[in-house]
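ingest -> validate -> predict -> emit
validate: passed (alphabet ok, no gaps, 75 aa)
predict: started
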Amino acid sequence: MMDRPPFVGHNGGPPLEDPQEHAITWHHYTWRKAHKKAWKTPPREIALRRLARAEELGMTYKEYTLEIMERGRYL
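emit:
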């Protein structure tokens, strides 16, 4: 388990990077599924528009998309 309490804003989900094989549970499965759905590739036009905007801001596509998902608004 964790030695310290999670930080403020932590949603309590399992770590998605480097999962331990023996720790795969239903909770882990549903979080992986939700993560995959959130990062699903959008339609081509949207992806190209995000890529162009990310390059204007000096960010990667993934960083820009993460900002949209975290804040719910476009930069």
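The mean pLDDT is 79.
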